[in-house]
Amino acid sequence: xxxxxxxxxxxxxxxxxxxxxxxxxxxxxxxxxxxxxxxxxxxxxxxxxxxxxxxxxxxxxxxxxxxxxxxxxxxxxxxxxxxxxxxxxxxxxxxxxxxxxxxxxxxxxxxxxxxxxxxxxxxxxxxxxxxxxxxxxxxxxxxxxxxxxxxxxxxxxxxxxxxxxxxxx
Length: 169
Known about the structure:
alpha+beta; 9 strands
């Protein structure tokens, strides 16, 4: 009886320890069925006014922001939009996932590869939780794009006049 309890507690302890290790590994890395996004624009290869079919001189980096509707369905618990960063400087293709730097999405949240870029007025609000229905008056232009991404990594995607491409490909 005593041996049985010792074996039972040993198995339970090993199971608990392995679950803790797996949980920690899952929190600090991207699993093969998850994806994270880093969306950027290459301003040298894209005229923003032309891309969004706006008159020349409309886009002002101080007054406007470009956001990307990610190819996810998240039910309000995670951001479905991401502010697009300007420039390709600082992209590290060997960068490991850092919690807090990127939001990772699991297989149930990743829906398709179609996405949308929106040019919106910079109102100072948190644009990662943007709602197109409520913020329709802030949208100056939009473009639908095919956003090809890979699971199991941080996708450093750069969009230009010719579409969206993986910077680290």
